[in-house]
Amino acid sequence: MLSFLIRRLLQTIPTVLAVVALVFVLFSVVPGSIVSSMSDDADPQVELRLKKQLGLDDPVYVRFGAYIAKLATGDFGTSFRTREPVTTMIAKRAWPTLQLIFTAMAFSVLLGVPLGFIAALRPGGLVDTLAMVVAVSGLSIAKFWLGLVMMYVFALKLGWLPSFGYGDGGLKYLILPAVTLGVSPMALFARTTRAAVLEIMTADFVRTARSKGMSETRVVKWHVMRNALVIILTTVGLQFGGLMGQAVVVEKLFSWPGIGSLLVDSVLQRDLPAVQGSILVVVLAFLAINLLIDMLYGVIDPRIRYA
């Protein structure tokens, strides 16, 4: 287990470096800069002084090396725009994003997985048909459009929930953005679970268990569910990455003060340290979640070993 963890942690280093390098390159080739947006039509000498203050007068490779050196000490740099440490900016936004993502994931798993199981146990029936209609619809609806519809119905027309904002961080502010974010993965979980259960139900070990007189309830509980859970866990890991990316749209739509909103604002303002820090945190969170899921495989299925 320890060697597995060390190997996986070492494998994250090239990924992190590649992400940081890609962001550096993109910001270097895209027209415009933080200096031009801050100084407007100021004197060229003022722009030169700003570049020097921000360290933008050095070549890209020099700035990249300096950033990597800071990163090795846990320093994400300082925002060009606010002159605030990037770690402080991200820390303020982390909890709202975690609330949104984990609530959306809980919603999608708690609805999608049982829906997929029920549909698979009665293939071709009414529940199966309705479940697949819900799944296809959920995967087809654009989050931006769905969010606008939900705001119109539940906030403007019915007045049940606030239309946007974080407020006091209570549940009523979280419901609309979390459901909007969770509909698509819920549909995917339903389809994935249904397909996994149908495949496992026809496996040799399931037929053997039935031939030995094991009840259908025990077959589903001890053989089907356990094996399907491995596939579901894989989907959970992948969907966490998807939710982190999709949260950018949902956070801006609902004025949710998370890392996604920070990332969009930083990109528009050409605030490179804030962009790098936000993307890096998202990548590290995705890698950490998938590492945790890989470790859970062995707990769920003892046949899986960490080589």
Summarize the SSE layout with pairings.
Blueprint: H1 2-29, H2 34-39, H3 44-54, H4 60-71, H5 86-121, H6 126-140, H7 143-157, H8 171-201, H9 204-211, H10 216-253, H11 259-268, H12 272-300
Helix pairs in contact: 1-12, 5-6, 5-8, 5-10, 5-12, 6-8, 7-8, 7-10, 8-10, 9-10, 10-11, 10-12, 11-12
Account of the 3D structure:
Belongs to the binding-protein-dependent transport system permease family. It is a multi-pass membrane protein. It comes from Bradyrhizobium rifense. It is found in: Cell membrane. The protein is mainly alpha-helical. The chain folds into two domains: 2-71, no CATH class; 91-300, Orthogonal Bundle (MetI-like fold). 78% of the residues lie in helices and 0% in strands. It contains twelve helices and no strands. The chain has helices at residues 2-29, 34-39, 44-54, 60-71, 86-121, 126-140, 143-157, 171-201, 204-211, 216-253, 259-268, 272-300. α10 runs parallel beside α11 and α11 runs antiparallel to α12 (272-300). The longest helix is centred in the last third of the chain and has 38 residues, at 216-253. It starts with a helix and ends in a 7-residue tail after the last helix. The model has no long low-confidence stretch (mean pLDDT 83).
The H-and-E topology, N to C, reads as HHHHHHHHHHHH
- Largest sheet data: none
Percent of residues in β-strands: under 5%
Return Rg in Å.
24 Å
Shape: globular
Mean pLDDT across the residues is 83
Secondary structure tally, helices: 12
Head-to-tail CA distance between termini: 8 Å
Low-confidence regions: none
CATH topology call of the largest domain: MetI-like fold
Content-based structural category:
mainly alpha
What's the total number of strands?
Answer: 0
How many domains comprise the coordinates?
2
What is the name of the CATH class of the largest domain?
Answer: Mainly Alpha
* Helix-residue proportion: over 70%
GO biological process, one term: transmembrane transport
Domain ABC transmembrane type-1: 94-297
Function: Part of the ABC transporter complex GsiABCD involved in glutathione import. Probably responsible for the translocation of the substrate across the membrane.
Keywords: Cell membrane, Membrane, Transmembrane, Transmembrane helix, Transport
